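Continuing the batch. This is chain 6 of the set; chains 1 through 5 are on the previous pages. Same settings as before, nothing changed between runs. Recording input and output for traceability.
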Amino acid sequence: MGRVTDLASFAPLLTPEGQTLLALLRDHDPAQELAVVSRLRRDHPAELVTAAVGQARLRQRAVAKFGAEDAYRMYFTPNGVEQSTRASVGTYRAGRMKALGVRSVADLCSGIGGDAIALARAGISVLAVDRDPLTAEVARANAEALGLAELIEVRCADVTDIDTAPYDAVFVDPARRGGRGRIFDPEAYSPPLSWAVEAARRAPHAALKVAPGIPHEAVPAEAEAEWISDGGDVKEAVLWFGTEPGARRATLLPSGAGVTGRGLPDPAVRPLGRYLYEPDGAVIRAHLVAEVAEELGGGLIDETIAYVTADALTPTPYAAAYEITDELPFNLKKLKALLREREVGVLTVKKRGSAVEPEEIRRKVKPKGPHSATVLLTRVAGAPTMLIGRPAGGR
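Output for chain 6:
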């Protein structure tokens, strides 16, 4: 219910009556939706109420990506909420563009305009292109709503028909979802990654947004590959052209901390030390665990596991640190007995290299007591192992 599907159902939301309904629905409780709809339909057209309720629901979902101040002024489609860039990531990327001296960008596959908004707020003029008429109209409405229409030109067109020569940079965010869900083959993106790469090569600067799981061998030799996480969650990878060919970088938001590859060999495997470090997902995706291990003076607990161990606690933004108190072979009965003996009631279970699910562990050991602990299910030198400890600061 409430899905805006075309221009005819979207346009009424921009009228004074539509704006009134959206204002009334800003803080509505989804659990009370049927009652709210029934009440509003007494004074407003049913189709408009349905569209407004759907838009209000999308705005509530969008708060997590755009923040309340923007989300409740913007307009969305279901795909737009799902696929748009988190504002913090878009702002960071726009800042890099600005630092490169970029003054104008052709934003190809612009969606509902999230990246165009970030670029415009950095003072960059944007041509935002999307081939879907509704999506393009939503992007245009967002530029107007946020006072950025002078910097954002929205065009409904096929991106392959756009002449990007007049622009300082190209940004391409290909669609990575299809009718069956997420697309993992870069050549199945829309448009394909190979087309986006050719468009990038023709521009002084370019940034291509790709899935963080992109194989390293699929990265063009002349591109810099950057993996970005936000709050510990890996959000995307970006292929930069016109920067540092061949570079590999991990950037962690909101701090902005970054580590760049130096071509180090894989860290050596060593015995478990007092501290265990869990590298940020962007560091792992960028294959930069060796750089972080060198900074920590540590090694791996297993050649196939991205856990770094060291004898000393070294503060780092690139990994979460745990002080390890116990190392046990995988055995749920022993774990349950140890936790009962220490009166552990708050149990955090993490895993890497283990098929056992954390919820299964919590259900079977039934933690109870006033104390807390962290259990890491992993492998140490090839053997299934349980590491018990506590957070030790780290990043």
